[in-house]
Amino acid sequence: MRIFFSALFLLWIVGITNAQRPKAPNVIIVYFDDMGYGDIEPFGMTGIPMPSFNRLASEGTRMTHFNAAQPVCSASRSALMTGCYPNRIGISGALLPGSKIALNPEEETIASILKKAGYKTAMVGKWHLGDKAPYLPLHYGFDSFLGLPWSHDIWPRDHQGNLITDPKDIRFTWPELVLLDGDKVIDTIKSFRQQQGLTRLFTDKAVSFIKENKRTPFFLYLAQPMPHVPLAPSEKFRGKSELGPFGDVMMELDWSIGEILKALDHENLSNNTLLIVTSDNGPWLNYGDHAGSPGGFREGKNSTFEGGTRVPLFMRWPGKIEAGRTYSDLMTNMDLLPTIAAAAGASLPKKPIDGLNFLPSITNKNTRGPREVFYYYFEQNSLQAIRFKNWKLVLPHKSVTYLGAKGIGGKGNPVSKKDFPLALYDLAHDPSETYDVQHLYPEMVQKLMGIAEQAREDLGDQLTNRQGKNRRPAAVVNSTVFNIFLE
Prior knowledge:
Blueprint: H1 2-20, E1 26-32, H2 51-59, E2 61-63, E3 66-67, H3 73-82, E4 101-102, H4 110-116, E5 120-126, E6 144-148, E7 177-181, E8 184-189, H5 192-195, H6 198-212, E9 218-223, H7 244-266, E10 273-279, H8 306-309, E11 313-316, E12 325-327, E13 331-332, H9 336-344, H10 359-362, E14 373-378, E15 382-388, E16 391-394, E17 397-401, E18 416-420, E19 423-426, H11 442-459, E20 475-476
Parallel strand pairs: 1-9, 1-10, 2-12, 3-13, 5-6, 5-9
Antiparallel strand pairs: 2-11, 4-20, 6-7, 7-8, 10-11, 14-15, 15-16, 16-19, 17-18
Helix pairs in contact: 6-7
């Protein structure tokens, strides 16, 4: 009898301990495609009602100096998933059908570290880090996946859905766009009308996942394909805005955020959910009225000027992250993995990463963020700029410029390339990178040149013929080779 009561007492103690132990927070990342800094009302957009984005701003913290690691799809997504500079892990550009590379399955991702920590994990939407097994989400820590292997404009059709008939057009060689459930093709998207249902399909799947997993810690990665062109608002939102198809799409994406918030509220999960909403890179400006806004920053997607990498970020975790706060410390999408790991009590990847833990600074307004330096790499491995605090040194390079290239009605005009010389900008006083002040601050130029040399030593630099000591290979895929840069 004494043994029985002793065992009962121990169970009681364990029960109390477990009850007192805080439940690991759910984590949701919503990742929009090509949404620029100025595309939502809390960051300056006008003419489009956005109650859900405004709610994020009032109930969470709005980050104003948040940068994607690179200004293009696959590279940015690899940085988000792994906490590494894309060139460290061999990823660059936007992977096309038949690409010879994919994200290396040996790299640990947000999903894999959270899965090890006991989380249920799911991805919904656009993957774009490999187009066939074993380079699809189920092989990187996700328990389930419903979505697209790449961008929804990668199909043998134009942006109006018409079949490409010119064999000289690279799109002529592309396969049809497919919808995947795990590793299995469950549908083929052959019409623009089918694309109009993608935002709702992925939103509904995300909401279902939240409701089905409300009793266990979960990680949800919702990667919406839009507002990347072609713009495909559903019938419910078509013609509802004052800004044409782009405004209609943004209204539908605001609705999608609202559905996520509504599900969290309904299931009493809001206070124990870290919700992160951001974009992969800046807007594709040569599509003009079908593209978004860099919010006053220079250039856009495919450029390492601020319009290409600076994107909106919201973080909402009631009771932990201050409501209505504006956070202006330098931060990148690489920093989300270690920040999430700290919040969840998960272990960091075994291999070195570049991300830094921002949890102390975003949960305590008196603590400064840990990042002072950011390397602006692009293309395969070109170091094009360095940031240190509020200073940005643009290194000599050739890059796209969107001046005079804006199209209308969904037709993108060709972009040109130009040589950009060495220039120093003070982003505190000149966020649009207009006034070169290198002659006024030669000591700052010298300091940033020293930081650039550290980057080249570590990661290399094609522009100066440096290999770098600490790069890791991407996965090599045995398939036909296509150009992996989509401009």
